[in-house]
Amino acid sequence: MSTIKDISKKAGVSISTVSLVLNNKGYVKPETYQRVLSVMHELNYKPSRSARKLATRKNGNIGFIIWESHFYEVEMFYSQVFLGMEYAARKSDSYILLTTVKDQFDPKTDLPRFLQYGDVDGVALAGRVPHELVYYLEKERIPFVLIDYSIPGKKYNSVQIDNYNGAYSAVQHLVELGRKRIGFVGGTFFHSSIKERYRGYKDCIETNKVMAADDISKYTYVEDTETSPAIGEKGISSLLKNDAKLDAVFCCNDPTAMGVIKEIQRRQLKIPEDIAVVGFDDIPNSSYSTPKLTTVHVPKLALGKEAFNLLNKVIEHPLEPPQTRVIATTLVKRESTGIKETVD
Fold it and tell me: Distance of CA 141 to CAs 11, 95, 137, 233, 338, Å?
């Protein structure tokens, strides 16, 4: 197997020049550049990861960290985001290393091993993560990107979903169907995405004057815990107790909507005739539920790919100001609102 030394000897250049060509950095005369490339091709040279690490001082590894509870509750969402990063990484010969962290996080005892040993060039943090971990990365100057999460009062590099407009369009759909008593069921507002989705719901209700502003709280069920089907079941029960004539529900995400559907059907009410249901995220199960769930589609693979691209930019240019990239959503109308599947 050929080495950098073989390339440099046959091309008649220094090892450092070969390294510049390999990493496409620094100035090399065009004729020298082409000569090195020709020799590399002739010798069928493929740089090893260890050689690349020595030349670039990079591992070629990217960490992907998710909160342990997220991994269990909404795995279908973040596994797709992870896959998007994986697809993007393949094109750059990078590896994505996945791990989880607990909510009660202490950098002294709970630091992921790839951070302990400096085995990653940067880190993607998916969804809600312990703030202590974010502050550790910031202190240690380890490049990182937040995915689908933000910390109030802090500006970090992040890739966000257009949660507000996605929610607004979902509720607008219910309004246009003539629904007058539209509820909201969700989990903790500690997660910025849920908070933004509720804001979209509330603004749409107020703008369309469907219900009095003072009555919105009567149609809101929010529990200070992570989203789940169980919250959906409890939420719809609470809303129906407040108003038996409730005719629509916007749920903060699809797992919550699945719980809402289950409880509505247990009560022998009809969807969408009695109560229309809309979710958010468009996880795979949403198109297989009975009835099929109207939901806001989030391009999860695109979210992961964009996070990978932004993180690489942060790694290459660590002193640039933080930026936020926003991924647009689309409304997928299905049976739970009485529509044969269409996409807005």
Answer: 39, 21, 6, 43, 51
Residue 193, both tokens: 């995405």
| Cis geometry, peptide bond prior to residue 272 (ω within 30 degrees of 0) | yes
Report residue 278 as tokens: 């809309």
Provide the sign of the torsion angle of the four alpha carbons 81, 82, 87, 92, taken in this order: positive
- Whether 58 has a pLDDT exceeding 80, the answer reads no
Q: For residue range 191-227, what is the model confidence (pLDDT) as tens digits?
A: 889 999 999 999 999 999 999 888 899 999 998 887 8
Residue that the structure tokens 């791990």 belong to: 99
CA distance 32 to 232: 65
Q: CA–CA separation, 98 vs 87, rounded Å?
A: 14
Beta strands in the chain (DSSP E): 61-67, 95-101, 122-126, 144-147, 158-161, 182-186, 220-222, 248-251, 276-281, 294-297, 324-327, 330-333, 342-343
Question: Tell me, what amino acid is at 271?
Answer: I
